[in-house]
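FORM 7B - TANDEM STRUCTURE REPORT

SECTION 1: FIRST PROTEIN
SEQUENCE AND TOKENS:
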Amino acid sequence: MKYYIVALFDDNSYESITPIQRNISKKFRANRNSPMPYIALEIIDNPNIEKLYTVIDKIIKPYKNFKIELCDEISINENMKTINLSIVNEGYIKKISRTLRDTLSLHGIYTTEPEIKDLSISLGNINSFNKDSKKNNNDIAFDLIKKNGKNLTLKVNALEIWKISNNKKETSIKSYELRSF
């Protein structure tokens, strides 16, 4: 069973990103039951859950809420079959991702995927996609993301461990709130 460690946003950020998710999902004919937008930090295959909980508790303790900026670049991840929106200035979240990977591997919990180089926000799940839609996919996102000439900013306030299943209520296993300012 695959488990995902994901970063989640606060309510105001979800209000800002929901219209973008809806429009992009409609354009790419994404699954209507896609989960809420998230940033996948790590993918783990069959870990010892209790050990995973304690390790993540130790890792997340010093981190606090932070902001990320959206870019108008849309990409399709063919391995995970998701539509993604790129992030600009990913320094803080990249540091958390790297710390997670290094600390988990030190404790004997290994990730299944190679290192996620370009962190991005997953907006929707797709079953199939045609190659032509990958060429001209940035025009729809540009108008929605740029507001007053600035990139849209979202606030990350929690990390969760997910087990992907057909039931949305069973998706989230454990949640970790980041410290507030």
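SECTION 2: SECOND PROTEIN
SEQUENCE AND TOKENS:
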Amino acid sequence: MVAAMVKRLASLAATLAAVSMVIFLVMNVLPGDPAAVALGTSAQEDTLAALRHEMGLDQPLPVRYVHWVGGAITGDFGTSATYGVPVRGLIADRLAVTLPLAGMAILLSMLLALPLGILAASRQNGAADWIATIFSQLGVATPNFWIGLLLILVFSTALGWMPSGGFSGWNDGMINGIKQLFLPAVALALPQAGVLTRVTRAAVLDVLSEDFVRTARAKGLNRRQALFRHVVPNALAPVVTILGLQFSFLVAGAVLVENVFTLPGLGRLAYQAFTQRDFLVVQNVVLFIAALVVVVNFLVDLLYLFLDPRLRSSR
């Protein structure tokens, strides 16, 4: 098992190295001069040349790549040309919004999708199954930013129950912060809950057809006992996979919802930096998100070993 984990870590490290090369090459072929962004288009050529030298833009691409990756490994992401502050601080500040937002969205998605998917599978072709099917189809088909706009119109504009956007920070209290992130979390959670409901239903139905479930029923367990003692634990593997992918997606793909609710999150930072041609910020944010995806996938692999003893014995 240890050898398998080491092999998996090596594979993930190679994947991250390849991703970093792609990110660096793409960012450096895009039009735009970070020095001109920092100084303005009216700056003198000698001033631009001096700033390019200070930022290392006059060095060959391989040298710049090695410096960038080496700095990223040590936690030095450089300085933003637009904001004039270390990129590490910008990412840390935005993570204080994006990570709680993604965590709330995943929690809401699980609380809604897991019971609905299990109920739909246990009542196949019944009313609960039809409700779950319609909900999952609507969730998959509806964009999260449209759900966010609808939530603002109903709960902020019409009813006045929730704030329509913005984030004042956690210094104003956790309750206030959760209240400001609740509607964006719901907008992110509903489409993901539709996907998770469908996966949960399919996984539970697949396990319900196994021979060991019929054996458990033959030994005297009722339907409810067999469902929660044997079926649900064995159906968790694909659900955990989807949860890992969804968390990575919520961290990386929340840019539309963050813009709808004007949240200072990581996705909004990447969007603003791209429009301002601050490519150093963009490539560091994308690299950070890629590293987060790699770490989450590795944690999902570890969780598999606890959920399925057969994997431990085989490895």
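SECTION 3: OBSERVATIONS ON SECOND PROTEIN
Residues 77 and 87 are 6 Å apart (CA to CA).
The chain has a mean pLDDT of 78.

SECTION 4: SIGNATURE
Preparer initials: ____
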